[in-house]
Amino acid sequence: MFSGIVEAMARVVSIEKEQENIHFTFQCPFADELRIDQSVAHNGVCLTVVSIDGNTYVVTAMLETLQRSNLGLLRVGDYVNVERSMMMNGRLDGHIVQGHVDETAECVAIEDAQGSFIYTFKYPNDVEMARKGYFTVDKGSVTVNGVSLTVCNPTDDTFQVCIIPYTYDNTNFHTFRVGTKVNIEFDILGKYIARLQQFN
Q: What does the pLDDT look like over 16-46, one tens digit per residue?
């Protein structure tokens, strides 16, 4: 489990395809603190550390992960937001994030809000998925590229988030442009509530 509070940005230093899998090598400030088999969220995707070498480490993404997330679009030199799994005695500063990305969304607008930024994201409008809790609500939580954020102005297929300068500078939000694909994970509490309602 994660909290959506990004610890650092990791740089892609190598991409190796093996059949349907891709092995990513990342350079990261806390790589020397990792251990084999540890879970790390990459742009919100939980992946397992399979090897470590100094300040770099390797994780493997399978086809389903690549199809559901933006990891397959990564190139050498790109940066991803990274977060290690929560400690049981840690503070939940963001919200409960599983690291199971639901789908990608597209950045369709970026507005300068006099020091901060307002991003608008669009995702597929699927009524059946919405019935299962895959939607956003005003002032609810959503994870964008692994960042826990508060939803503003949601519609059936869009939502906005407000990004302060610290988040802009210390996550890969500063690399976003109109058309950028991001990973989104909808709030797990909403999914459970939607599921429970099916039994009423």
A: 999 999 999 999 999 999 999 999 999 999 9
CATH number of the domain at 8-84, out of 2.40.30.20, 3.30.950.10, 3.40.640.10, 3.30.230.10? 2.40.30.20
Q: What does the pLDDT look like over 154-179, one tens digit per residue?
A: 999 999 999 999 999 999 999 999 99
In what side-by-side order are the strands of the sheet with 181-186?
Answer: 147-150, 141-144, 181-186, 103-113, 116-122, 158-163
E strand residue ranges, the chain? 8-18, 21-27, 39-42, 45-53, 56-61, 79-84, 103-113, 116-122, 141-144, 147-150, 158-163, 181-186
Which residues, given as ranges, of the chain have pLDDT below 50? none
CATH 2.40.30.20 residue ranges in the chain? 8-84, 103-197
Tell me yes or no: is domain 103-197 CATH 3.40.50.1400.
no
Q: Which amino acid is at 15?
A: I
pTM above 0.85, yes or no: yes
